[in-house]
Write a structure and sequence with these properties.
2 domains, mainly alpha
Length: 350
């Protein structure tokens, strides 16, 4: 891995050099207000001084802090440049970052997230490097997050086979880690990927295992103020049956999911608007395929209302820019894009 890393490091150092020469200074501070820009420049200056004085571990921490600032305002190109600077420093001097430093591998995680989102061709390399470093540091939680990001990289390229392979590597690590919620979420991802590959029986079996595991955990812990992952498994079961063509079973599970959300809310549980959105879309798709356009339209409108809620700004508006852009033409859009709807899949790897 050392030689592989150095080869990649040289390639990326060249990328950083080109970026630094061609980029304008203003672009480095895009997204920052004047106060935040001043703080970033001050922190970057401290990081440079620490590096020049030979305090490399402290410099690594400060560069990571600068990267976090840039990430927080959405300046991902500049954040990536700084993360690469931090990682290059760590590799060059073979730094041992203290276990007590909570962000010791955040540079790898955020860099991989940014490269993945930009569909950068170096994404695979940096995911491999980050996972290797986390393994060396026994930083299992960050490693699992990197595996999730790695799987998403392949999903973004519609390469579900490699995404499944990545997930299969992560599952035993997640199980050994001993966090029931994290393991259940990995099973959810795995089942979802198998479903998208048309491996319905395997997907259904994994979903059952995940549901039983997390449902038992939720009953034991009286979950009210965090996500009920059991609801996500119910929705996934419905989606599996939908793809398999068993529309009666699919409808039953979708309705059960929506009923569970409503009952949970009535008992004082938190909102699950992201799940409600996904369920409305998929159940609407089912009704559309059955020719029940009125029911489908009602569900798409309900999903659109969730998107327009200020509390749900993080949800993608992809579906409604495609099929529900103009209310007066909603059914026309549905018919026009029926083939597209058949292939569209919401992916949410947590």
């Amino acid at each position: 891995m050392g030689k592989l890393f150095r080869k990649g490091w040289l390639l990326f150092s060249l990328f950083v050099l080109v970026f630094s020469v061609n980029g304008k200074e203003d672009s480095s501070y895009a997204g920052f207000d004047s106060n935040a820009k001043g703080k970033l420049k001050e922190t970057l200056l401290v990081a440079d001084e620490l590096e020049h004085s030979g305090q490399f571990v402290e410099a690594y921490k400060k560069y990571t802090e600068v990267g976090k600032m840039a990430s927080a305002v959405g300046n991902f190109d500049y954040a990536s440049e700084i993360y690469i600077k931090a990682i290059t420093l760590r590799e060059k001097y073979d730094l041992k970052i203290p276990y007590a430093y909570p962000d010791r591998n955040l540079a790898y995680l955020n860099l991989c997230n940014h490269l993945r989102q930009n569909l950068n061709d170096k994404s695979v390399f940096w995911h491999q490097v980050g996972i290797h470093q986390c393994e060396a540091d026994a930083d299992t939680l960050t490693m699992l997050k990197l595996y999730k990001s790695f799987a998403l990289h392949y999903i973004n390229k519609y390469d579900h086979e490699n995404a499944i392979a990545v997930n299969e590597k992560a599952l035993p690590i997640s199980l050994a880690f001993g966090d029931t919620v994290e393991y259940a979420k990995n099973l959810l991802d795995y089942s979802d990927l198998l479903n998208k590959e048309g491996r319905f029986k395997s997907a259904d079996s994994i979903a059952d295992i995940g549901y039983e595991l997390i449902h038992k955990y939720e009953l034991s812990n009286n979950i009210k103020h965090s996500t009920k992952w059991s609801f996500w498994f119910i929705q996934l079961k419905a989606f599996i049956y939908l793809n398999e063509g068993d529309l009666d079973k699919s409808e039953g599970f979708f309705i059960a999911c929506l009923d569970s959300i409503n009952q949970f809310n009535s008992r004082g549980g938190i909102d699950h608007q992201d799940l409600e959105y996904v369920t409305n879309i998929r159940l609407g798709k089912l009704y559309y395929e059955l020719g029940n356009y009125i029911a489908a339209d009602k569900l798409f409108v309900a999903a659109e209302e969730i998107l327009n809620n200020p509390k749900t700004l993080g949800l993608t508006k992809l579906f409604f820019t495609i099929i529900c852009y103009k209310p007066t033409k909603r059914l026309g859009y549905l018919k026009k894009h029926s083939k597209l709807l058949k292939n569209i899949a919401i992916t949410l790897i947590i």
